[in-house]
Design brief:
Elements: H1 9-37, H2 44-70, H3 75-82, H4 87-113, H5 121-154
Helix pairs in contact: 1-2, 1-5, 2-4, 3-4, 4-5
Length: 167
């Protein structure tokens, strides 16, 4: 990432940690999408196992992301501490993290229970697609909050890293 002289070392570390969390979660989301798109007729048990594995990866990634976002030295904590106007949005994002984690856990349990039953693949695909859409919405809200916090603090847009195009 390109160095920005406006960030303190702690803020830079928080931003880097946040990006690593998001990259790990995005990779898990892609794995789940691939598992959902696999053929299922005649191989429902294999399909369910692949989806469960991908969902477990997503659950682990989102749990770690949530735990890191809750830390006192996290980027969200820094925003909450230094920009009181944005505190409610930080709290809302953290609540949304918890809801998404709960949804992942519930879907994992449901797929586990269905091991001896026939899985309604179309229904499960639709429900997991909803989950992935909610996660994308969460990520967009969080990105918007970070950009807004940066702009409020420095009255400038975040510089882009020429290598990745990321701020």
């Amino acid at each position: 990432m390109a160095e920005d002289p406006d960030f303190t070392p702690a803020q830079r570390a928080g931003l880097d940690k946040h990006e690593a969390d998001q990259d790990r979660t995005l990779a898990a989301m892609h794995r789940l999408e691939a598992a959902l798109g696999a053929a299922s007729p005649g191989r429902e048990a294999d399909w369910r196992g692949d989806v469960l594995g991908a969902l477990a990866d997503l659950g682990a990634a989102t749990s770690e992301e949530y735990e890191n976002a809750e830390r006192p030295d996290s980027l969200l904590s820094d925003i909450k501490r230094n920009q009181p106007r944005l505190r409610n949005r930080v709290r809302g994002l953290r609540l949304q993290y918890a809801h998404l984690r709960d949804a992942i856990t519930a879907l994992q349990r449901e797929l586990d229970v269905q091991e001896s039953a026939v899985t309604d693949v179309a229904d499960m695909r639709e429900r997991l697609a909803w989950l992935l859409t909610a996660m994308r919405h969460q990520r967009a809200r969080e990105s918007d909050l970070i950009y807004e916090a940066y702009f409020d603090a420095f009255r400038a847009d975040m510089a882009r890293d020429p290598g990745t195009g990321r701020p």
